[in-house]
């Protein structure tokens, strides 16, 4: 099994994810091959929120094209996976409170 730091790579800090925090939803960049049970175990162990997770939504995000030429694509940024974790009412992740 992978280490929790290999499953949850970093928090996703955007305008939309900041608004989602008001409804107890937290966004993370996760490993592309991670499953929902692996993400759940990693989040519970990493942030001490055992039993507080209600839902986990995952989505694969395509990397954007690189280069300015309209006709020729020079490459792509890598594809990545996003997870949105919904917590029960009253539960928070302490790492996000300091941001």
Can you give a write-up of this model?
This protein is α+β, with helices and mostly antiparallel strands and 99 residues long. It has one domain: RRM (RNA recognition motif) domain (Alpha-Beta Plaits), CATH 3.30.70.330. The strands form two sheets. A four-stranded antiparallel sheet has the order 1-2-6-3. The chain has a two-stranded antiparallel ribbon with strand order 4-5. A hairpin with an 8-residue loop joins β4 and β5. It is elongated, with a radius of gyration of 15 Å. It starts with a helix and ends with a helix.
Distance between the termini: 30 Å
Q: Determine the number of helices (DSSP H or I, runs of at least 4 residues).
A: 4
Q: How many whole angstroms does the radius of gyration measure?
A: 15 Å
What is the CATH superfamily? RRM (RNA recognition motif) domain
Q: Which regions contain 5 or more consecutive residues with pLDDT less than 50?
A: none
Indicate the overall shape. elongated
For the record, the count of structural domains works out to 1
User: The CATH topology is what?
Assistant: Alpha-Beta Plaits
Strand arrangement, largest sheet? 1-2-6-3
Report strand %.
25-35%
Helical/strand content category: alpha+beta
Looking at the overall shape, the CATH architecture is: 2-Layer Sandwich
| Helix content range | 25-40%
According to DSSP, the number of beta strands is 6
Order of helices and strands: HEHEHEEEEH
Overall mean pLDDT stands at 90
CATH class: Alpha Beta
| Largest β sheet strand count, sense and barrel closure | 4 strands, antiparallel
